[in-house]
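Data availability (excerpt). The following record was deposited with the supplementary files.
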Amino acid sequence: MCIALNCLVNSSVPTAKFFAVRGIKESVIASYSLLGVANALALRDELFQLALTNSRSFESFVLDSLCWVIAVITKRAWIDTPEERRSEFTQILCEDIVGHNTPCIGMITATYLIDEVSGGSKCSQFRLPWEFHYACKTTFENTHMLRLFEAALKVIHRQLQRSAEMQHMPPSGSHTIAYERRSALHIADRVLGWAFTSSDESTVIAASFGQSKGGSGAASARNGGQHSSSRDSDNLDDGDSSGLAIFEHDLQNRTPLFPQNWQSLLLNGEVLTMFFSVYEATLSDQMHAYFSPGSSHLALQCLVQISGIRGKDIFAATASKGGDTLRAEFARVIMRNQLQMIRHVCSMDLVSEGSEDMVVATTQMVRRFIETQLEEPSSTVVANQQLHSLAFLVIGVPEAHEYFGEVSKFICMLLNAAAGILRSDMLQRIDDDFGDVDNYFVMQAFDELASAWSTVINEIREWEYLEDAALNVEPSAGGDRSDADKQVSNHSVLSSFTHFLVTTAYLIRSEYIQLRMLMCEDSVSSSGSRAESLSLDQGLLAKDYVVYEDQLQFFALLARLDVRTSLDRLYENLCSRCNALQEEFRALEASASEGTYARSGDGFNQHTVDLLHEQTQWIVLMIGFTLCDSGTSERVLIPKPVLEYSATCSSMEQDLVVQCIMTMLKTLEFELASPLPSHSAYGSPLLVETLFWTLQRIAPVYFLLDRSDYRNISASIVTAFGGSADGGNGAAIINGILDLVKRTFDLWSAEEDVLQMCVSGLRTLAQRAAIAREVTTSPQFAPLMQYFTSNITRFPEAIHGSIIEALALLACHSSAANHERCFADLKSLILRSFSQVVHTGSFMARHQDARLVNQLLGGLDMMDGLLSAANFRNMEAVFALFFEVQPLFEQLLTVYACGEEVPRQVVQAMESAARYLDISSLPDDEHMLRFSHCFRELLQRYQKSSTNRSTLLHSDTDIESLSEIRSLISAMSHLVHNEMGFAPDEVSPSIAKAVSEDFGETEVFGLYCVYVTADPSQLLAPNVLRIHIQLLSEMVQYRLPSLVRWLPTEIWARVMDTLLAGIDHGIYDVGQRTYEAISKLGAYAKVTGLTNLPAELREVLGQGFKQLLSKLLHALLFSPFDVELVEYAGSALVTLGLIDPEHLQSCFRELFSQGESAAFAERLSSTLAKFNADLEACEAVQGLLASTKPIPDPINSAELRQPLFEPFADAMNNDIGQQLEGVLQPSADDKFDMFAMSTGVPDFVKKLFRMLEDEAHREVVCWGYEGESFVVKDPNEFSKYVLPQHFKHNNFASFVRQLNKYDFHKVKVTEDKRYGDEASRSGAWEFKHPRFQHNRPDLLEKIKRKIPPKSKSLGGVGSGRHGDGELRVVAEDLQSQIHLLTHAHAEVTMYMHQLGKQQQVMIDELNGLKKNMQTQDQLMEEFVRYLVNQDAANGSGKGGETSAPASIAAAAAAAAAAASASGLGGIGALGHIPGIGGVTSNVDSALVNGNGLADNGASTDENNSGGSNSSACLDAQPQLQSHQQPSAQLCELPR
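Predicted structure:
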């Protein structure tokens, strides 16, 4: 180290200085324990002085490295450094930052120090436990980082003042100002993006240190799309949650949660305005780009972060101001400054590349601000309701309407600018550089604002949904709606704002339609020949409904604000294009008849037809998105705004919903009419595909709709599309659609995409039982079936399987005779495709012929399609066909052992057989054993043939080979599912032990095939590893004895390596399945002892357990870890520790030696206490193993509950031993372990019960008084803090919809069961289910998801090739519902009989009571008469005036007071939101005082405190008359 210091001081070679600095850093990290804290700090101070002294002589890269080393040494010694020394060094940095040194060593060092302490990817690796990094971060961010940020703000403010002073002076020192400003912005940018440590003590493993995983790691992988609407998040908690959206947007990953002590800086209006001013100043720094590169970009990033400040801590109430007051002031400052930026941007040339950064950043600011503000709930109560977030902004900020108006104007200007590009000369350059206008930054900015605007509209829709739900539950609540409208309330404010949205939506829709029409014209005009036009028609634009889905959903939201006007515009455009198309085709027909067809085809007509097709396609897409939503999990209904509009129409001719759908059908019919064969050259396959896609979206929603699904249904829709029983014309439309399908295959037989979409439409018709029955009874169905079976070879092989699947699914809804005939036709078609090839004598000689191979692939694909359509109607026949073709599959695997496509297609068919063929439906054990043997023989043949294809299969870059391996793994996973019968909500069937063991042998051999045919690198590919780990977990859980018996030792080594790779994996599902498999495997090893295993296998397992334990413990303490996986990882850690406690002891000793403090041991013990400390998780494993067959030997639960940490407790000192005693205490989470392992309880119900058992949420959500219901006391707090922890989303409306799906009912919270003042103020919600009770987890398995009437199709028709659900499941559910209804009817009858008896008893009692009252009245009259006579006899009566008792007077006064107080009382809470005045005070003084905003707020409250009351406040509040005239004094107290 001395040599390095000497080289740094005396060397004249910059490179030598650089490496000397690096050597000092490595020496300090490696020998810190020998160096000591005192010497380390002395070295740090010496290096800092050296940097100050040589700041102008050292090269920039040497100086940067030196400052970085100073920061590294500071962090390494941070924990051991006394707080006085820390504060002293921080003060030195602040003084140097505020000083005028250039370059500023303090700024550079502070920037590196923030990077080091942050724990992100820029953090140096010290190989220390997470506790060290956590302690450094918590102590640094609380005080020291705040001071550094304050110093940077002072520099920014000073440079702004100097820039203003030098405007009229020579720019000699302007480069210095720009450099210092950029350095200060570096600090501000890092601080504003800081991830503050959580104050929640339950988040023990919230590590953010170690290797960076790109943000939130596994959490980000599960977020999905961020633009999904609230309706799409209804099923977040059902089944496997992988790949689903956790939140509607990713605010948690983009904006930090600042603590309360940052209020004085971040909520200071002058500081906020200063950030907007500094960006304007950085624009002038472009002339000094050498000194300050990227200054404007840094300033924009700071503005984006500033706009998204959020969190209850930063907006916590102070002594002088409430939390909502601070929010309103902050929002007003941001809105004012963003308004100036929006107006400035709108005045610029939006399409110039120089404005790109500003345009995009401005839209990002707007989106960040709107999303964060609407996410934060308001605590203000108005008209006995908690004020909605959007209503709070509109009421609390006078500029709100102006702000939203400018944002809507900005959206329109961006669309107009994009349209201007299409009309300008720069279009060609943009097409060359960016592909098209949609990839240019103008449209990217539009997407940002569209997302923000969608959030606003969705908030309005969510509020309307909750308000309608509340009114439906409590009809009396809507009685005084007219009085509420006259007051300032959620209803009045949001209703007025909705009118504003309707106006702006019209303008945005118009601009978007115009832009799309121009883009269509440009795309057609740019094609120079017919060939180019065809390539365009079949290119990227063929998937417009996928590429532009977000924009089309945004358009649909806008259109549903005013359905009448939107559909009128779209219908007019659709009719005009369709009429023009007809005119063009008539002209072409006339020219062809006159002999001038060729000349006309090369001219104007062709261009016009292409343009009309392109524009019609986009109009159809807009109509399709407007009329209905997409959905796969449940039946999609007609959107409420569309239904309400249609109900107002008096006839079908006036109903634009009906007319739009009918016009699209007529357009499709016209495109397929083909009056002349030559006209097919002018048709558009893209338009036909789009029309079928739209029809696939609309048909399940509108055709043959069930009137019971709607409270009020439009008569015109029922007449146009309803069934015959309702007097509708739906049957005729379905007949027409079947005819259009046949025309499509005749006209476009070579267009695979068009035909695939057409077949997908047939599958969609099969999803609805009513539609499918109508299809099979149609006179068009039999000819269509005959047409397909006779001409299937004319169509591309890729769609053969889809055709067979669609026809088989539809045939399942026909009569028994028709179904048998249809299946026989399909079976003969499949067998014919094999027999014509395989059974011929020249097969071996011609087996490599391309046409023969294609025919085999078509037959295999058809067999796969028929397997995918298996259900209770055809299950027996499909099994028989599988047994019949199984020898053919073996022969193909043998013949094509060196091939690729045929074996891959055979494996795909095996996967479908394992997935869709229900083993439990087989009549006896003999058939079950036959299916197992057939599957095993196919696996053996595949394993033998794969040895000839090892080179092909082991190519990790071959996507096809990865797909084949994934199909093989999926086949084995589905076979385990199928044989064990643990499908969701089903009971495991009882299978004979011999049959189960035979299936176990087959499944283990399948796992063996996976490992011997696949390369290890292929099994670790992300898309393969997910399902691979799932198979391992299921095999360990259900087939562990079979694995131990049959799996070879070398394969066990591969299994342990796979589990090792799954620990701390970035994919959430992989980690969860891995920890589950380790827990089950460890429990089995602990109980059985593995004594009967061969020595080689025991050694492999023992070594594997050691490696798993070491890596798992290291991952929990040193690596970023998903908090949701702590419970699973804890169970795995406990079971591994039980197997090898000595190894666990050595791991802990090493950790304690590294921790060097009792605090680390305490935190480690609290972490382990969260891992199911009482070891009951292992007993839960026992229960799970005992619930399935086959089962291992009986498990001795006493062995599992032995103290895990007892073997090494004596080795530690007494303090650490006492700290570890907490590990053996049960945690709150462990009460639910047995229930968590149950497979019969739906995930949503499971999470709901666990949430209510958590004592931490009792103030927000709790059980009812009798334990038969639960209460959400504060829906806003519940949505913000409780829902994300348990349900991975924060949408209360989605939570309510989930409860409704599981038959929970909302009950009214009456006066006699209030749940606290907070619950009454915020509007508590109480829900009840007869089988959801406190301390009764045994009833939860009986809670099932409701099946909407006729929402599931018969026969288990899925949404696609591999659909889900079968009629057997539906039938069982219906039978259970019938049984429950019968039982409920009997109970009601008995209850009514008892009520009749009780009523007669009460009548008798009332008659007796009436007689007693009459007797008492007579006695009272006699007694009063006696008193009067006695008074007259005594002569003591004296005249005098009588007065009302004091109690009566008091009661009258109280009644009068109550009557006077019955007005608008809640508005007083809103009066604490004063408007923000001018920003005039000095920023430096605000920073020094540390309470800039608080002082202003205190003076305001003092001025407003005298003589204000609720009535005065009410008089001072003007009513919100319209959205165009917001009142500036609405939220201010009277002066």
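Summary of structural features: The beta strands are 381-382, 385-386, 1261-1263, 1269-1272, 1305-1307, 1325-1328.
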